[in-house]
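Appendix B, Record 12. Input sequence as logged:
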Amino acid sequence: MQTWRLTFALGIATALIAGLPSAARAQSPSPTPTVTITPTITPTPSPSGSPTPTPSITPSPSTTPSPSITPTPSTTPSPSITPTPSVTPTINPSATPTPTPSGETLLNISTRARAETGDNVLIGGFILGNGSTLKPVVVRALGPSLGARGVVSPLLDPSLQLFNSSGQIIASNNDWMTDPNAQQVIDSGLAPTDPREAAVFTTLAAGAYTVVVPGIDGTQNIALVEVYDVDSINLPLLLNISTRGFVDTGEGMMIAGVIVGGTVPKTLVVRGLGPSLAGAVGNPLPNPTVTIFDSFGFAIGSNDDWQNDPNASTIATLNLAPTNTLEAATLVTVAPGSYTAILSDATGNTGIGLVEIYNVTQ
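Logged structural output:
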C-alpha cells in the first residue's frame, strides 16, 4: 500500500514540475516568521468520527512586514490570464493497495502563497486514491477574507480552474454563489465569507487533479487554495498535497496546511523543492527550507538540506529523496490534528518553489 501511495504522490509532484512558461522575479531577503494558525469556519461534521476539517489553515507571521506601499482595495482586479492546463499527471500504481481505514487519512489540504501570472500562478495538486466510487469535494480559492486575518495584500478577486490528469478542465468558478452547486457548498459548511471568492462542489473519481489559481503581478495577490474531503467515511481518500507557486519573503512565503484525520499517529514526509525545477521554470527557488508547525504554532520539524535530516536514510528508502542536495525534506510522525509547513529560502531569496506533504504511514 505504501508503494502505491508514493507512486501516486510522485505522479502529481512530477506533474507540477512540468510547469508553465518561464518568468523571473526580484530577490528580497526577509526573516522567517513564527506561525500562528487561525481557522475561519467549522464545516458540517462528517459521519466518520474523524476530526472535522477546519477550513483555511492560514498561519499569520508574528511580525507582519510593512510594504513600502500599502495597497488600498478600492478596485477589484481580474486575473490577467486564463491559464491553460499546466500539467498532465501520469498515474502508474505499481500494486493494488489495501484500502486505508475510513478517517485514517488526510481530510483537508490547503496552501497560501502569491497568485501571479505565467510561471507564477498558484498551482495546487492532489491525489484521490483507493476506491472506485465518486468522492464529493469542495475546492476553494480565497483572497478578500484573508485581509480580516492580517494579510496585508490579499488577492481581491480570486478564481479557480480544476483540471483532471488528462489536462481537461472539469470545473471553474470566479464568484462562488454563481457555481451550479452553490447550495451544496453552503450545506457542507464551506461557503466563503466574501462573494468575490471562488468555490466549486463536485464529485471526483480516484485520480490526480490540479487546481490553478491565476492572479495579478505586483503585490496584491496573496491567495489560499483549498481542497476538502466532505465525505471522509467513504473511499477514495485524499493522499497528498503538492503545490507550486512563487515563494516570496514575509507574508509571501508559501504555507501548506493539512488536517490529519483518524485516531492514530501518522508519518508524513514534507519536501521543499526549488533547484530541481530548473529547466521547467525560469526562476527556481535556489535554497528551499521547510518548517512544520502544529496547531499551537510550535515548530515540530524543520530542514534545509535534506541529507542533514535525522531521517534522511528513511526518506531515501521511501524514494522521496530530492534530486538536489540544496532541497529540503523531513520526516515527522504526528497525532491527528492540524499542521502547516512553511516553504521559504534559507538565504532570503525568492523564486518558484514546490511544497509537498506525503502520507507514508505504514
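Confidence is low (pLDDT under 50) at residues 1-103.
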